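Section 5: illustrative case.
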């Protein structure tokens, strides 16, 4: 197992401090009753995983929302059934806006417990207390009035008999204690009746006791680790590594020598084989080069022929298009020459013209007759007028 980082924040140490700060901020009245139906925290709530992780995560984001409000930051409290990924993203965005020095991945925050959660809550509690003007001072301990050493009379002489008397006197006092313990039955009953001599009965809640044990148990484990900064440890480690290197140098060198020898022999065999192949297939190689040159010439001729075919194909396509156009013109002209429709139309037009001419002749004859009749009537009126004039002259 990896050694524990002693400098890393310990959630079991942070959580009691967080609970004390929340109590100072009055979370029991201002938060618990209105936000989580009066449910209160205990000293290991965010230190260990909860049997119901969803409830633990919702309690965390609720406390986070309340503390953000106390720090005068805007953060909308998420609903119990919101997507945890979206909620964690909003929490991380709010932390960036608040410029809190938190460098944990979102997965740590999504867990709802552990170092990341406790660090976030602890920093928000400190900010809320600072916003309210609450400052915690360092505890002041009363000075010790006891002397560090008992006064010694340097001029006093200490003899062996005085030491023996002192030891015997202390033994006598101890004997008096044991002798005094043999009391009567009545005295024993009276002593049992004293409060300090009664049987102790626990009044602690077992659940609270187990919670306290769970929070304190990891801190009671003792790990004795070697100090890597000590030069003796470095020296011993260096000697051990040097011994291991010396032990493994010989076999490793032998293995490398064998490997190098084998590689050299393989390279020599490959060179010999290559020379043999070159001498054996020299004629074949020359023939291959000749055939390759011929292939290149043929490929060039093929490309030239292919380009010529492409040009001829384009010309053929052009001529074919022109021929199709001529054929279509000839077909249209042949259809127009064999069609009798225009001739029939012409005959009908001539017949109509004849009828129109006949009608015009009749009209002309009628008009000529009318004109002749008018002319004759006019001549007759002139003759009548002339005769009348002549008679008047005779009279």
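Designed sequence:
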């Amino acid at each position: 197992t990896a050694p524990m980082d002693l400098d890393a924040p310990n959630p079991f140490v942070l959580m009691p401090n967080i609970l004390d700060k929340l109590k100072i901020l009055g979370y029991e009245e201002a938060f618990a009753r209105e936000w989580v139906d009066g449910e209160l925290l205990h000293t290991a709530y965010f230190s260990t995983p909860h049997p119901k992780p969803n409830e633990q995560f919702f309690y965390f984001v609720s406390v986070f929302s309340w503390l953000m409000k106390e720090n005068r930051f805007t953060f909308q409290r998420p609903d119990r059934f919101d997507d945890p990924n979206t909620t964690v993203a909003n929490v991380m965005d709010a932390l960036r806006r608040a410029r809190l020095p938190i460098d944990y991945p979102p997965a740590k925050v999504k867990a709802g417990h552990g170092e990341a959660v406790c660090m976030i809550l602890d920093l928000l509690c400190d900010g809320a207390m600072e916003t309210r003007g609450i400052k915690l001072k360092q505890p002041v301990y009363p000075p010790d009035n006891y002397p560090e050493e008992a006064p010694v009379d340097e001029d006093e002489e200490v003899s062996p008999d005085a030491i023996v008397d002192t030891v015997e006197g202390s033994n006598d006092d101890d004997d008096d204690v044991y002798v005094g313990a043999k009391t009567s039955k009545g005295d024993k009953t009276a002593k049992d009746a004293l409060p300090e001599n009664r049987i102790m009965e626990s009044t602690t809640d077992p659940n609270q006791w187990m919670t306290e044990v769970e929070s304190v148990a990891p801190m009671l484990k003792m790990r004795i680790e070697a100090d890597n900064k000590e030069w003796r440890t470095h020296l011993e480690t260096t000697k051990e590594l040097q011994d291991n290197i010396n032990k493994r140098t010989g076999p490793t060198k032998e293995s490398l020598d064998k490997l190098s020898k084998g590689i050299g022999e393989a390279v020599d065999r490959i060179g010999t084989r290559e020379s043999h192949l070159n001498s054996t297939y020299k004629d074949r190689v020359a023939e291959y080069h000749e055939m390759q040159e011929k292939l290149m010439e043929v490929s060039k001729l093929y490309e030239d022929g292919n380009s010529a075919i492409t040009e001829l194909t384009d010309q053929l396509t052009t001529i074919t298009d022109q021929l199709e156009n001529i054929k279509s013109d000839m077909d249209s002209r042949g259809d127009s020459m064999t069609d009798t429709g225009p001739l029939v139309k012409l005959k009908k037009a001539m017949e109509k013209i004849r009828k129109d001419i006949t009608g015009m002749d009749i009209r002309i004859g009628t008009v000529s007759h009318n004109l002749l009749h008018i002319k004759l009537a006019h001549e007759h009126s002139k003759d009548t007028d002339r005769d009348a004039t002549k008679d008047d002259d005779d009279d």
